[in-house]
């Protein structure tokens, strides 16, 4: 006998984890008006209640909705579950240092979701996001297209911001991606980057930069180190990723079929298989539709393979 199918409330989201990232994301979603119902779940129920109360007080200044602390029983009809629960990255700690602590937390969370015959989409935000996206796919049993890691959506936004600042151009006119690991082995794809169709190296020169390759390398390093620099100053990052979560939810709910560099499982692309990492994909109401084969040069392909190998080596030490 097949399990009972639960009707999905397409205006309902669940946030699992009410730390800095989870709470900031719920606040951003409240302001967006995308949902009519948002449930907050946390190991500390009182914390979830407090965050729900605080954020709810902004509802009269925005759009009508319900925001409340709940339990896993509230997830059954949700369209989207967002998972931010996990240990925080500390100063001097890499995202990959968090692996075993956060995999253990996911081994508690994902089975609770599976028990309730959830039929929506999971967005994984907890770091290391690529590893945990893979873990969530394997533990949940959901189709891969319905488990999406936030990946390098934020890194790509940071890249566009840094390029726009350097070249004095609207960041929305910058077309570039960061792919691979959301972390130290990430790759800024400059070979196909452009400013409204103009190759990025030409635009650098147009703006008076005589050594575009050096400028691009410096920009890539700035983006890669952004989180470390923020954590060093304020001990956590949460506003940028909150905006990224809002954008992913928006693309899903509106079935925009936008191209986002989300973390998803690779199946032979560039010889990479059975590992999740960030690569541009068309995202819509059913989650990930298909990967988008952007142009990469040989060096970028080699770096992407190296990034995938780093992640696969870590997965070898994880029991899932």
Describe the structure.
The protein has helices at 20-32, 45-56, 99-115, 129-140, 153-167, 200-206, 212-224, 226-234, 239-253, 298-316; strands at 9-16, 37-41, 66-69, 78-83, 121-124, 147-149, 174-179, 187-195, 198-199, 258-267, 273-284, 287-291. The chain has two domains: 9-149, 3-Layer(aba) Sandwich (Rossmann fold), CATH 3.40.50; 153-316, L-2-Hydroxyisocaproate Dehydrogenase, Chain A, domain 2 (Alpha-Beta Complex), CATH 3.90.110.10. It is an alpha/beta fold. The strands form three sheets. A six-stranded parallel beta sheet has the order 3-2-1-4-5-6, sandwiched between helices.
Features:
6-stranded parallel β-sheet; 41% helix; 320 residues; alpha/beta; L-2-Hydroxyisocaproate Dehydrogenase, Chain A, domain 2; 2 domains; Rossmann fold; 10 helices
Summary, kept brief:
The protein is 41% helix and 23% strand.
Give the radius of gyration.
19 Å
Question: SSE order, as H and E?
Answer: EHEHEEHEHEHEEEHHHHEEEH
**What is the domain total for the residues?**
2
Mean pLDDT comes to 94
The CATH class designation of the largest domain is: Alpha Beta
Percent helix: 40-55%
Shape designation: globular
* End-to-end CA span: 27 Å
Largest sheet: 6 strands, parallel
Query: CATH architecture of the largest domain, please?
Result: Alpha-Beta Complex
CATH topology of the largest domain: L-2-Hydroxyisocaproate Dehydrogenase, Chain A, domain 2
Number of strands: 12
Biggest sheet: strands side by side, in what order?
A: 3-2-1-4-5-6
Unreliable residue stretches: none
SS-derived structural category: alpha/beta
CATH-defined superfamily of the largest domain:
Lactate dehydrogenase/glycoside hydrolase, family 4, C-terminal
> Helix segment count?
10
Strand content: 15-25%
């Amino acid at each position: 006998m097949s399990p009972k199918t639960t009707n999905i409330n397409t205006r309902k989201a669940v946030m699992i984890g009410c730390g800095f990232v989870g709470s900031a994301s719920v606040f951003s979603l409240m302001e967006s008006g995308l949902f009519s119902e948002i449930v907050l779940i946390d190991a500390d129920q009182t914390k979830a209640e407090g965050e729900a109360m605080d954020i709810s007080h902004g509802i009269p200044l925005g759009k009508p909705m319900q925001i409340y602390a709940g339990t896993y029983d509230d997830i059954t009809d949700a369209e989207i579950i967002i998972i931010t629960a996990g240990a925080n990255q500390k100063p001097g700690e890499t995202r990959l240092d968090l692996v075993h602590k956060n995999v253990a937390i996911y081994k508690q969370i994902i089975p609770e979701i599976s028990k309730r015959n959830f039929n929506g989409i999971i967005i994984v935000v907890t770091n290391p996001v690529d590893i945990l996206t893979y873990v969530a796919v394997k533990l949940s049993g959901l189709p891969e297209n319905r488990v999406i890691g936030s990946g390098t959506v934020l890194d790509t936004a940071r890249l566009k911001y840094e390029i726009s600042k350097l070249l004095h151009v609207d960041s929305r006119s910058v077309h570039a991606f960061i792919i691979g690991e959301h972390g130290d082995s990430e790759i800024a794809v400059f070979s196909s980057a452009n400013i409204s169709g103009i190759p990025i190296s030409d635009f650098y020169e147009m703006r008076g930069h005589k050594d575009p390759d050096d400028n691009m390398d410096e920009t890539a390093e700035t983006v890669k180190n952004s989180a470390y620099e923020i954590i060093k100053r304020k001990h956590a990052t949460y506003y940028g990723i909150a905006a990224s979560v809002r954008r992913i939810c928006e693309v899903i709910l509106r079935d925009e079929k936008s191209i986002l560099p989300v973390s998803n499982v690779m199946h032979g692309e560039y010889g990479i298989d059975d590992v999740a990492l960030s690569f541009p994909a068309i995202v819509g109401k059913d989650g990930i539709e298909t990967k988008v084969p952007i142009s990469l040069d040989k060096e970028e392909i080699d770096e992407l393979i190296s990034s995938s190998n780093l992640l696969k080596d870590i997965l070898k030490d994880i029991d899932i």
